[in-house]
Each structure stands twice: as structure tokens, then as C-alpha cells.
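Quick one, probably user error.
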């Protein structure tokens, strides 16, 4: 089959760009429906690392003539016990007859009747695989006439491209999971981070930094993408930030620097040279900026971690966490409804169970352990 310019515009480019859609490949699927004159189509995506009880992602598209019809439910297809999708050979196009059970006449009659009720008389199945990381099944159906040979050829042609896109999507999903875990952990302790270039432009900001800071479009003379931003701070803080970034990037000052961003909120930015193990090609930042809001973790959640980690009782764990928050034994005990003598006895047991030598050592143990992430 010859390669057409329309293929690139309507199928291959949407495959690449569709990786970033949510859910992916909506435009690609709609264009494929138009190209093959299908009535309905759907892609079912399963990830190898997904929990067994997690339902696959299904993306549906319909031709304009079927826009008012309910979308096809892939679960109804599964209930018909068609040829197992996992047994399909990747890259090969299957027609509907190959999916039916001709060995069991009763089952075959049931399958045909249900498909007719769903408005499905003709279909094409295509399985694509992402090297063990994910699988996808592309299904096209029609009602009045069978698909042409050219429609099947289109599926055969796009199969390797869809497989490559699926592998990229699976890798991107894993990277998104890693980033989400890192952001969640930092967010629990109120830490935000910025990636800055040598002029102080913001290259990236995590969710905490986005929430705590204000940004303005970069209107300076330096070249860069239109989406470049700078921190919206006082002129003095902006000059200090730009100078510090330039010095750190030039290697003139390898030590960390501090810039006060908001005196009212007591918000400071710690700047250090970026030393990230990034694969090429990359947009490497010159400086990493770290800020932290004043907050502590939920007391009950942290106490639960202390109970599990050190075998403390509930009251001992609550008292230990209160001590880590800066309260004295007497203050914490009174707030928890303990007598001064009981609070002192609890503190001795806490030190013994945690292996600490006093309140300062206990605070160090708690703040450098897992309770802040509870």
C-alpha cells in the first residue's frame, strides 16, 4: 500500500501527538473511523504492571452517523467469549468470523444474536504489544457491509506505528508515576522546587512551588520559548535572584545562596547548582531552587507511624509527636490529659523504646524518620 500525505497528517501524526492526550489517541481514532468508514471503534489498553482488578482503559469513537448511539462497551464483547484477545497475534488483522466460536453452535448463535443486538455485523480486530509493558486491542465495527480490503490494509500498515506509540505511552506512564510519587512526598512536608536557568528564568516548577509562588511571562531580551516565566517578586528580590543564578551557573560561587521571596510570609528560596543526571537531549537547568512552607504533618497520622515503628502505645506516640513539635513534657502532657508524673513516666518509656537519650535526640529521630511523610 502506497504511503499518502493524508496518512501522515490524519493517522501517524495523531498517533504521536495522541500520546499526550487524556485519554490518548482520541483524534487518531476519530480519523481512523473516517478513513475506514467504520461505524464504531475503540481501543482497549492494559498495562502489565496494573493491578489485576484494575479495569483497562477504553477509548471510543463513532462516525457522525452514529453519534447519537451509545458507545460500544468492550465489556460486552468480553462477555461474549470471543477469541481471547491475549491469544491474537500482534500486528495481524482479524475479521469477525475469526473471533467467533464455531466449535459450539449454541455459543455461536448466542454470539451472533448479541452482536446483532449491538449493531455489529462486521468487524476488524488488531492487537498491538509494547514489549511486555502494555497491550492494546483496536476494534472497528460496521453494520451494513463488510470492510474493504483497503481498510484492512490501513490497519496492517499502522500496526507497527501503533505498537511504537504504545511502548512510548507505557514508558511515559511509568515516568508520570515516578514524578507523582516524588511530588506527593515533597508535598507532604511542604517542599517545593524550581528549575532555573542562568538568568533566573523558571524552566519548571513542581505543584507546591506553583501553589506558593506567583509567576509572570518572561519579557526579557534573552531568547527562549514563548512560555518562559519568571518569578513575580519585588524588583530587589528579582535582581538578587538573577545575580545569584548567574554566579552559581558560572561556577564563581559553588556555595548555596538564599533569596527572600516574600518577607510577609517568611518565604525563602535556597539556590544550589543543578547536578541532575539527565539523558540527552535535555534542557538542563543551571540552578535548582528549593522552598518550604511552615507546616507539620497530621499529628494522628504521625503518631500511628511512631506506634508501628517503635512499638509505642497510643498515648506514648501522641506525646512523642507533641515533643517533636516543640512542646515541653508538661505542656504536651496537660494537653493530652496526662498528669505531670504520668507524662514524665511516658517520656522515659519513649526514650527507651526509640533508643534516644532525651528530648532533643527524640526530635532528631522523628524529624529525620518517616513520621513527616505520614
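Nope, works fine. Designed sequence:
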Amino acid at each position: 500500500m502506497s504511503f499518502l500525505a493524508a496518512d501522515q497528517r490524519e493517522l501517524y501524526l495523531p498517533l504521536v501527538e495522541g500520546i499526550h492526550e487524556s485519554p490518548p489517541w482520541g483524534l487518531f481514532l476519530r480519523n481512523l473511523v473516517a478513513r475506514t468508514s467504520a461505524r464504531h471503534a475503540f481501543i482497549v489498553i492494559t498495562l502489565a504492571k496494573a493491578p489485576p482488578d484494575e479495569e483497562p482503559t477504553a477509548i471510543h469513537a463513532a462516525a457522525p452517523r452514529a453519534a447519537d448511539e451509545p458507545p460500544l462497551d468492550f465489556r460486552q464483547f468480553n462477555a461474549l467469549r470471543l477469541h481471547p484477545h491475549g491469544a491474537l497475534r500482534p500486528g495481524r488483522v482479524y475479521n469477525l468470523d475469526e473471533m467467533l466460536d464455531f466449535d459450539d453452535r449454541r455459543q455461536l448463535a448466542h454470539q451472533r444474536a448479541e452482536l446483532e443486538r449491538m449493531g455489529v455485523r462486521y468487524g476488524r480486530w488488531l492487537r498491538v504489544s509494547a514489549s511486555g509493558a502494555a497491550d492494546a486491542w483496536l476494534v472497528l465495527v460496521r453494520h451494513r457491509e463488510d470492510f474493504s480490503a483497503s481498510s484492512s490494509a490501513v490497519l496492517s500498515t499502522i500496526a507497527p506505528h501503533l505498537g511504537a506509540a504504545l511502548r512510548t505511552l507505557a514508558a511515559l506512564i511509568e515516568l508520570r508515576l515516578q514524578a507523582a510519587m516524588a511530588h506527593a512526598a515533597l508535598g507532604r512536608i511542604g517542599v517545593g522546587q524550581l528549575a532555573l536557568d542562568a538568568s533566573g528564568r523558571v524552566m519548571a516548577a513542581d505543584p507546591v512551588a506553583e501553589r506558593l509562588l506567583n509567576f509572570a511571562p518572561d519579557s526579557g531580551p534573552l531568547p527562549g520559548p514563548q512560555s518562559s516565566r519568571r518569578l513575580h517578586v519585588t524588583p530587589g528580590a528579582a535582581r538578587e535572584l538573577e545575580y545569584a543564578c548567574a554566579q552559581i551557573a558560572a561556577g564563581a560561587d559553588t556555595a548555596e545562596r538564599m533569596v527572600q521571596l516574600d518577607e510577609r510570609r517568611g518565604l525563602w528560596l535556597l539556590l544550589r547548582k543543578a547536578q541532575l543526571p539527565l539523558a540527552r537531549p535535555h534542557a538542563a537547568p543551571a540552578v535548582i531552587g528549593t522552598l518550604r512552607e511552615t507546616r507539620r504533618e497530621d499529628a494522628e497520622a504521625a503518631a500511628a507511624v511512631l506506634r508501628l515503628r517503635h512499638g509505642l502505645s497510643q498515648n506514648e506516640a501522641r506525646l512523642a509527636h507533641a515533643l517533636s513539635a516543640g512542646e515541653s513534657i508538661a505542656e504536651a502532657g496537660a494537653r493530652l490529659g496526662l498528669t505531670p508524673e504520668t507524662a514524665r513516666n511516658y517520656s522515659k518509656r519513649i526514650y527507651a523504646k526509640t533508643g534516644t537519650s532525651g528530648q532533643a535526640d527524640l526530635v532528631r529521630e522523628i524529624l529525620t524518620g518517616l513520621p513527616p511523610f505520614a
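Residues 12 and 152 are 16 Å apart (CA to CA).
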